Amino acid sequence: MARFIVVLSCSLLLLLLRVNDARADFSEVWESATSAASSIASYVEELADATIHSAKDYYCQHSECCGVEDVPYNLNSLRSMLWTKLYGQHIASEVVLNAINSHIKSSDKPLVLSFQGTNGVGKSFVSKMIARAFYKKGEKSKFFHFYYGLENFPIHEKVSEYQVQLKSEVEAAINSCDRSLFVFDGVDYMPPGLLNILMPFIDSGNYGGKSNKNKSIFIFMTNRGGLAIQNHLLSKYEDDLDRESTTLQDFEDIIMTITLRQSGGFYESAMIQAEAIDYYVPFLPLEKHHVRNCIHDAYRALNVTPTNDLIEKVFSELRFGPPPLNIFSNSGCKRVEQITGRMVARLQFDKESSSLVETQTSRYEL
């Protein structure tokens, strides 16, 4: 339309300029006018495009954009973190990495994962790894959206209000970036029926009648199923099966059965009934050698070389079960960072106190 207006305006202008020229041939006038107007219109379009791209580049230099610069989808980084920082979760590492790899390369619908296991086994840790690998700003990216049941949806009677709010936020997020990451922690504590509002977004790549590809990832995390996973793993041990030999198929049916029966956000959920969850990912309970690795990492993060004495002090505050074997940490690695931080603070305090005593003693002797 803009081009037509430019062509028409310039043509009329040239015609008016030459209307008094009796020798002028009308066809020649028209040809000259349209040629000139077409050149001007092309220049205006190119200038507009260049201006738009320049403005977009400037904006993306100063703000996060949904392009390869800010959303690199670094699978090598994710693989490295899963292999070197996640302990005792060979099944989760393999399933998550393969699922995301396939999703990025070929899927036009959102990827939906359910992380299930006891506290401190790495569910939140893995979701943060994905954010760090996907986004230049990691967990601080505006494309990473985190919801916690007790904090964001605490009152069950307000489920309708929460649904309106959640639908609006998810739709806005996907419109802003179709490669957004949504994490819902504490699904156990969410009002029943709340998550049904997500079905238009996760059941296909299209929503609201739009044909755009939705490459988002939805992760739902719950502690339900953790005890069943633990007991089933113990039964495998009784059958002399090595932990590393267990597979997703060993736990998937158990997790799905418990998910169907559990209260909270998944209770009578359309998401479950429609089989919209792509993978039920089991997180296995952690044993002492896994927790030891977490303790090493926690001390090193505080620039402290962990000695056997320091490590055993942390273990002395952790509990293991179930009896009589007591081989699994009741809290996984969840309390490790807090305990090591307190240990290091105490070491620094003792060191400073000792130095102060020595200084005062030296002054007294003088």
UniProtKB/TrEMBL annotation:
A cellular-component GO term for this protein: cytoplasm
Signal peptide: 1-24
Top-rank taxon: Eukaryota
BP terms from Gene Ontology: cellular response to misfolded protein
Keyword Ligase: no
Keyword field contains Mitochondrion: no
Entry keywords, A to Z: Signal
Protein name, UniProt field: Torsin-1A C-terminal domain-containing protein
Record organism: Trichogramma brassicae
Biological classification of the source: Eukaryota, Metazoa, Ecdysozoa, Arthropoda, Hexapoda
